[in-house]
Design brief:
- It is a single chain.
- By secondary structure, the protein is of the alpha+beta class.
- Helices cover 27% and strands 29% of the residues.
- The protein has helices at residues 13-31, 65-68, 101-106, 109-139, 163-175, 192-200, and strands spanning 3-7, 42-45, 53-58, 83-88, 91-100, 186-191, 207-208, 222-226, 229-234, 240-242, 244-246, 250-252, 257-270, 284-297, 303-304.
- Strand 8 and strand 9 (229-234) form a beta hairpin.
- Helix 1 (13-31) runs parallel beside helix 4 (109-139).
- The radius of gyration is 24 Å and the shape is globular.
- 30% of the residues are buried.
- Mean pLDDT is 82; it is low at 3-15.
Length: 305
């Protein structure tokens, strides 16, 4: 997701421009490396003036060999093509941090902006990825529960994701003709605890990323792969309370979900003295960020959780 900066500047052009560019750099550098779910969705940019973005998907045709075998001179029966339309509307998310005049007087401004920019980026990263997770866990219908359990409510302590479960996921995705994302592999985004369980139960089939023979690209957060699924670890998985704490995992094929982007990540810096009567003693500067987007499931066959 792109990042841009704006500001209401009254303290002189050159220092203000420097601060804006410095802040933008801090947010961008700290935001993008930490986005996991946002990287693997189909990103679409909404045009100005539109509140709804639509994806059109032609459902798979299922005619059999017998049905498409032609009889000489006879026109075959037409086939109806079904189009599924998925729509999204935006939600705007944002936050601001206040920097006091006293703090600015006692600390280097570049250090303040670096720290604030890093924390704003980290917080917004978590928000973006959790919004996408909420869509996937709410509307993703392909579910495999650990240890063969029939439902989330049936899970008990000790039911962990194993290498055998990953094998089931990979088979299911291939059987459903889900397209791969990276070098012929699907991507699995899992909690750090889950990744440890997978490594410990893979019967030697787990391959650490630092032991890959080929020189292909290693995904950010990728720690290894198993059964054609690259495992990406993150500490930002939303857990679910169901008798025990459940750590959902998401195994993704190409175009499983879409991300509709109405407003790129925007960082905003208001220096001390820019608020007028709202800050009569010129005590506060603010640093903030906002974004408007939405996430939607597109291809059920390309996601297993």
């Amino acid at each position: 997701m792109a990042v841009r900066t704006t500001g209401n500047i009254k303290n002189g052009a050159s220092p203000a421009v420097y601060m804006q560019n410095f802040l933008r750099k801090q947010v961008l550098e700290n935001l993008e490396p930490e986005l996991y779910f946002a990287k693997y969705g189909q990103v679409s940019k909404a045009e100005n003036g539109y509140l709804t973005l639509s994806w059109a998907r032609f459902d798979q045709l299922t005619r059999t060999v017998a049905q498409v075998t032609l009889t000489e001179g006879v026109t075959p029966t037409e086939v109806d093509a079904t189009v599924t339309v998925v729509q999204a509307t935006p939600v705007q998310y944002g936050m601001q941090v206040i920097i006091s005049d006293f703090l600015q007087k006692t600390s280097p401004i570049s250090s303040i902006l670096e720290l604030v920019g890093r924390e704003v980026a980290a917080n917004m990263m978590r928000v973006i990825d959790k919004v996408i997770q909420a869509e996937l866990i709410t509307n993703g219908t392909n579910v495999i529960y650990a240890n063969g359990r029939a439902s989330r409510a049936a899970l008990i302590a000790g039911d962990v994701v194993t290498g055998a479960d990953i094998s089931k996921v990979a088979i299911k995705l291939r059987k459903q003709n889900a397209k791969t994302i990276s070098e012929g592999c699907y991507v699995g985004i899992v909690d750090n605890f889950v990744a440890g369980d997978i490594r410990n139960s893979s019967s030697g089939l787990w391959l650490d990323a630092n032991k890959y023979v080929t020189n292909g690209a290693i995904l950010n957060g990728e720690t290894g792969k198993l059964q054609g699924i690259k495992i990406v670890e993150t500490s930002n998985i939303d857990t679910v309370a169901s008798g025990i704490t459940v750590y959902p995992s998401y195994f993704i094929g190409k175009d499983a979900y879409g991300i509709a982007n109405w407003q790129n990540m925007e960082t905003i810096f208001h220096p001390i003295g820019s608020a007028g009567s709202a800050d009569p003693l010129n005590q506060r500067a603010t640093v903030g960020a906002k974004i408007a987007f939405a996430a939607k499931m597109l291809q059920q066959n390309a996601l297993v959780r």
